[in-house]
Amino acid sequence: MRQIDIHLSFTLQHGVADLAMPKRDPHDPGVEPARQRAEDAGAASRSPVRVGGGEARFGTASWTDPTMTAPGVFYPKGADSAEERLRFYASEFPIVEVDATYYALPNKRTAESWVERTPKDFVFDIKAHALMTGQPTEVTRLPKAIKEELPAELKEKKRIYRKDMPKELLDAVYAQFRDALHPLIEAGKLGAVFVQFPKWVFPSNEARELILETRERLGLPIAVEFRHGSWFNEKNAERTVRFLQDNKIPYVAVDEPQGFKSSVPPVIVPTNDELAVFRFHGRNAANWEKKDIPPSERFRYLYDVDELADWTPKIASVAKGTKQTHVVYNNCFSNYGTTNAREAARLLAELQA
Length: 353
Fold this sequence. Notes:
Oligomer: single chain
Distance between the termini: 31 Å
Order of helices and strands: EHEEHHEHHEEHHEHHEHEHEEEHHEH
Largest sheet: 9 strands, mixed
């Protein structure tokens, strides 16, 4: 088994402000300081960065967050439509993660538009629908054909879980998800389906079987992210890694606030020669488990360059032995994610120079 690198500590770098000026949080400095850093980072993020025999792609977990599409934040003046925004984003980064598919099943026409609006080598990572990972979905978000076939008692519920779904309707969920992604598959633009398990899914034979079942049902490449630290505690870490490696399932390494039951340590372990994934959630501990706030507030955190640089050799060590490495910034508040993606790409490119 390959060595597990668990990097459990991090240091918040606090800037020193002029005593006469109001103190500015260096991890939430606002649009303009982040924009200046993005400009200083250059254009390394526009193409995959070659590392040994592989390549690393840098991007964000959204291109449509309202804090990102607000005027003057990331998109140029005039890029107001969905088409214009995706075309611009794809000129700056070679990869993006689609989160909307977690909330509602995708449709083929949308996937066709994504293909049409992005360059030939652009890649989409797609988040698995909630029902595929044991999380609830709102009944109103289900496709009409599936909703109409629900038993009467389920139609009356606001949310339903995987365990509630009749087998034939759960089959239909997987079938529609897979069929809708066919344009991406046909164009060679599907990276992987991100299967993210909620914090109440603990290591168990049942959970491991669900991972394998999801891959089999989809018939598509998947990458797995856990949301409970017990998967990598002293008791379970070795078994978790062995399971992923034996089944050649790419593991999603995460950087996120530590100290919570839901906190997963930043484990760096290659489990598949074709694909490795890194996701950066920010380190906003104050908002990490706060309820009733927009997702963007949870991820409202701009990494400083030293924090990014700590990860650069780790990304490089995995990328050099992996065909594709996806580095996705989920701190998609304002222009924070896009800034950090640009900076991290530059740091990796400089390491290879």
